[in-house]
Amino acid sequence: MLDDFMLRAALAGIGVALAAAPLGCFVVWRRMAYFGDATAHAAILGVALSLLLSTSIFAGVLVVSLLMAILVSLLSGRGYAMDTLLGVMAHSALAFGLVAVSLVSGVRIDLMAYLFGDILAVGKGDLVLIAGGALLVMVLVGWRWSSLLTATLDADLARANGIHPGREQLVLTLSLAVVVAVALKVVGVLLIAALLIIPAAAARPFCRTPEAMVLVAAVIGAASTSGGLQAAYWLDTPTGPTIVSLAAVVFVLCSLVDLGRRRLARMSSSDISS
């Protein structure tokens, strides 16, 4: 059954969407969009180092993404505004990675596949890694769910309840590095942050609880990857960008629905008061 490349691609996309959903919600709640960008952009440096050292690309991307995320966490609040620090590190990591890739000799590199993903080339081994990574992230976030929510809501409240905010930040850092490593094949380093943020942002206006937001974000992400995969196949367009474009369309539609709902609520309240 897994000999069908479209089926493998769909399963890979759904696996990444399920792993990205809870992390995307925390990225939105904590306003960590640039943090996700910095970690994702470091992945191309991990690819270059893996090729230079003849090691697993998954392992290289995971290690470099994790090191970047930890470095950003350590440097935050030490004299630089967070958005400035993350902007510098994100684009510097991408630039160094591209330079390093250009220096790799004797290996044929499809740079576009790493930048924008190559989901149609997902093999059975890739599928196992994606499934394992997604399961690890979901187990890790589920295990620390209550503590992560408390630390996100209020660091002082977390400390009062015996929760160390730095430890919860480390859990998010590790999970984010895993998602970056497994999503590289699906959407590439330039679009990983978009797949994290857009489904969560689209789900936010319609959910009253954090759990509901994660569930809706997972559905939107899975639908975007599956629908984007089909659209790319029909339209002969790049798959990774098509997936993110469809997610962006869903976000716009959700925003319009929410705007219309708010206007109707204001009109109803003004009619009642008059």
Automatic annotation (TrEMBL):
<keyword id="KW-0862">Zinc</keyword>
<feature type="transmembrane region" description="Helical">
    <location>
        <begin position="94"/>
        <end position="115"/>
    </location>
</feature>
<comment type="similarity">
    <text>Belongs to the ABC-3 integral membrane protein family.</text>
</comment>
<comment type="function">
    <text>Involved in the high-affinity zinc uptake transport system.</text>
</comment>
<keyword id="KW-0472">Membrane</keyword>
<dbReference type="Pfam" id="PF00950">
    <property type="entry name" value="ABC-3"/>
</dbReference>
<keyword id="KW-1133">Transmembrane helix</keyword>
<keyword id="KW-0812">Transmembrane</keyword>
<feature type="transmembrane region" description="Helical">
    <location>
        <begin position="212"/>
        <end position="235"/>
    </location>
</feature>
<feature type="transmembrane region" description="Helical">
    <location>
        <begin position="241"/>
        <end position="260"/>
    </location>
</feature>
<dbReference type="GO" id="GO:0006829">
    <property type="term" value="P:zinc ion transport"/>
</dbReference>
<feature type="transmembrane region" description="Helical">
    <location>
        <begin position="6"/>
        <end position="29"/>
    </location>
</feature>
<dbReference type="GO" id="GO:0010043">
    <property type="term" value="P:response to zinc ion"/>
</dbReference>
<feature type="transmembrane region" description="Helical">
    <location>
        <begin position="41"/>
        <end position="74"/>
    </location>
</feature>
<keyword id="KW-0813">Transport</keyword>
<feature type="transmembrane region" description="Helical">
    <location>
        <begin position="127"/>
        <end position="145"/>
    </location>
</feature>
<dbReference type="GO" id="GO:0055085">
    <property type="term" value="P:transmembrane transport"/>
</dbReference>
<dbReference type="GO" id="GO:0043190">
    <property type="term" value="C:ATP-binding cassette (ABC) transporter complex"/>
</dbReference>
<keyword id="KW-1003">Cell membrane</keyword>
<dbReference type="InterPro" id="IPR001626">
    <property type="entry name" value="ABC_TroCD"/>
</dbReference>
<feature type="transmembrane region" description="Helical">
    <location>
        <begin position="174"/>
        <end position="200"/>
    </location>
</feature>
<protein>
    <recommendedName>
        <fullName>High-affinity zinc uptake system membrane protein ZnuB</fullName>
    </recommendedName>
</protein>
<keyword id="KW-0406">Ion transport</keyword>
<keyword id="KW-0864">Zinc transport</keyword>
<dbReference type="InterPro" id="IPR037294">
    <property type="entry name" value="ABC_BtuC-like"/>
</dbReference>
